[in-house]
């Protein structure tokens, strides 16, 4: 099951699986949506045509064909600081929902006829350090999650 997954602080290494491309985000350093977009583009080596918008981010997160791995994970530590300086709360909400949508789309390939011709079903998870504030925010945003084992 793809999507948001909460993990206990200090157990990040337990999340790492073979053949997984991991994006590591430190919430203390990524405090706006623009910083997140820039960092994920760098860590995923987005193609030159990437336009640094949420639409372009969604398009490329639903592709990732240039990467060798067949599983993908975004690991966010220090979540209480993550996007904390983003002034446009709707944009933050849109990003959080976009990541959830991308994870669901990878889990449900094919999402439309012919999609299986160019992409396979894949694991795509967003791991967030578990705190009471994390749980509260995800519930407030109406985003479902599960806990890492």
UniProtKB/TrEMBL annotation:
Show the stretches that span the lipid bilayer.
Answer: none
**Which Gene3D superfamilies does the record cross-reference, listed alphabetically?**
Barstar-like
Q: What is this protein called?
A: RNAse (Barnase) inhibitor barstar
Pfam families hit by this protein: Barstar
Question: What range(s) does the Barstar (barnase inhibitor) domain occupy?
Answer: 21-108
Query: What protein family does this chain belong to?
Result: Belongs to the barstar family.
Q: Which InterPro entries match?
A: Barstar (IPR000468), Barstar-like_sf (IPR035905)
